[in-house]
Design brief:
0% strand; mainly alpha; 71% helix
């Protein structure tokens, strides 16, 4: 095993993990947005969207 093989393998693995985590976060964000849209369509609202009694 050469030094170059080790270095390129390490960079390749790091790139793979970075891309995999990025795609996972992107897909999860889309799923949560769809879930939130379904909840809001059914009448469930966010607490932060509620108006205060005095307003």
């Amino acid at each position: 095993m050469t030094h170059a093989f080790y270095v390129y393998s390490a960079y390749g693995f790091a790139a793979f993990v970075t891309i995999a985590v990025t795609l996972w976060i992107w897909a999860d964000g889309r799923a949560r947005q769809k879930e939130l849209a379904a909840l809001e369509a059914s009448g469930i609202r966010r607490r932060s969207a509620r108006k205060k009694d005095g307003e």
